[in-house]
Design a protein that fits this description.
Blueprint lengths: L2 H20 L3 H7 L12 H14 L11 H13 L5 H10 L4 H12 L6 E3 L6 H11 L4 E12 L5 E12 L4 E8 L4 E5 L3 E12 L2 E12 L4 E10 L15 E6 L3 E10 L7 E7 L6 E6 L7 E10 L1 E8 L6 H6 L1
Parallel strand pairs: 1-13, 2-10
Antiparallel strand pairs: 2-3, 3-8, 4-7, 5-8, 6-7, 9-14, 10-13, 11-12, 11-14
Length: 335
């Protein structure tokens, strides 16, 4: 594993650890009992250090642990939850001190180890900081969350994307939700709306660089806690140019997400007359970054690569592929 990959893995583990500590529930209640005050979206480092200290008093690793003070552990907490320095021993200390069950332990350790097979993926970033700031300003505070999303991406006989069919289940986290944002990194597309969608509020508008946004109007307004299943199909438009002149973006399908998405299912299907030589499942270092982890993927009997993740957050994931060199049989037959 390269240094960049290792750093991204530690960052991902730290982000997921922070999320666990912030979620309403047992972990948060455990550290909040030591907090004089707590702020939404922020962990109280000294209060978390108190939890770690109490654990070390009862289960010392060294002789000094029996007398350690919470303030001595505050920097350890800061480095861990910020992702600046999360060692394996520190991760184990958090797991033991908060009594995390086996499932959470496995997720955290797999993230730390950099396993690309992990079923929960939370990365350091999906977009550059300046782009994130512009997107956040355009979107405003979150008013819904994605309960599940399924992307079925189809690649045609010419080696170019034909369409992506998306099924998305959204849940309102505020009252009166009547739309959700639709964001893409190109405006060379057509959006067809299906179930759960009433229409599109205007055209795709540039909000930052190559990031565009429109609002999908919901078939009905949602009250707090209500859910709705949406179906929409994105069709793509490409310039007419030889395959050798096409850029890397035509040989990949990715999903970038800043906010948490549960139950993420992605499928890329290839035309039987245009099959890739190799396909890889990959994680990118943001939208503009390089691949930081990948593994080879197999095609099923329907010429499709598939991956399911329990959740993704603040990351860019997907498939990329390479075509065989030289003309394919199908190409020769049509000449």
């Amino acid at each position: 594993m390269s240094e960049a990959q290792a750093d991204a893995s530690r960052q991902a583990a730290a982000a997921y650890l922070r999320e666990l500590l912030l979620r309403p529930g047992r972990y948060r209640r455990l550290w909040e009992q030591y907090a004089e005050r707590s702020r939404p979206g922020q962990v109280n480092q000294l209060a978390i250090a108190e939890v770690l200290a109490h654990h070390l008093w009862e289960h010392p690793r060294t002789a000094a642990d029996g007398e350690v003070l919470a303030r001595q552990l505050k920097d350890t907490v800061l480095r861990a939850v910020s992702g600046r320095l999360l060692s394996k021993s520190t991760l184990t200390l958090f797991i033991d001190a908060f009594g995390m069950p086996e499932l959470e332990q496995e997720r955290l350790r797999k993230l730390w180890d950099g396993s690309s097979r992990i079923s929960v993926l939370s990365g350091p970033h999906a977009m550059a900081p300046e782009v994130t700031a512009e997107v956040v300003a355009a979107l405003g505070p979150a008013r819904h969350q994605t309960v599940s999303v399924h992307d079925h991406h189809l690649v045609g006989r010419d080696g170019l994307a034909v369409r992506t069919r998306t099924l998305q289940v959204v849940e309102a986290i505020a009252d009166g939700i009547d739309r959700i944002p639709y964001i893409y990194d190109t405006n060379a597309l057509t959006l067809e709306l299906g179930q759960g969608c009433k229409g599109l509020d205007g055209y795709l508008q540039r909000i930052s660089g190559d990031i565009y946004k429109a609002d999908i109007l919901l078939a009905k307004p949602l009250g707090l806690g209500e859910t709705l299943t949406l179906e929409y199909v994105t069709s793509f438009h490409y310039p007419d140019e030889p395959e050798e002149q096409r850029d890397d973006a035509t040989r990949q399908y990715r999903r970038a997400t800043r906010r948490r998405m549960e139950s993420f299912d992605i499928r890329v299907e290839f035309h039987p007359d245009k099959l890739p030589e190799n396909v890889w499942w990959a994680i990118w270092n943001g939208m503009e970054g390089e691949v930081i982890a990948q593994e080879e993927a197999d095609l099923d009997s329907q010429h499709a690569a598939h991956r399911y993740l329990r959740s993704i957050e603040n990351t860019v994931v997907g498939f990329h592929w390479a075509w065989p060199e030289g003309p394919l049989d199908g190409d020769r037959a049509s000449s």
